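User: Can you predict the 3D structure for this chain?
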Amino acid sequence: MPYASGDAGKGAAIFKRSCALCHTVGAGEPNKVGPNLHGLFGRKTGSVEGFSYTAANVKKGVVWGEDTLFDYLENPKKYIPGTSMNFVGLKKEKDRNDLVTFLKQATA
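Assistant: Here is the predicted structure, written as structure tokens:
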């Protein structure tokens, strides 16, 4: 099932609980264990300047959008075999919809 608009407030809570330890979203914020996500939508995998990606992330060549991110967040290691992202994913479609909706707003 493709992405459907979710609840950005619930997505913010998911981000805080599951993503904020490794990622930032604001313009000019630093990379952490994972890259800064500002400007995520429309950006190619493995392309944040100053962040050291695995070859798998660079070679994947996907442009992040609502549907690609929705699919990736279900199981990152399956979507990009060889990624070093240490996140098991979000199995519930509603959680992924909420998180993608939040990220669209927070990273713009």
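DSSP finds five helices and no strands in the chain. The chain has a mean pLDDT of 96.
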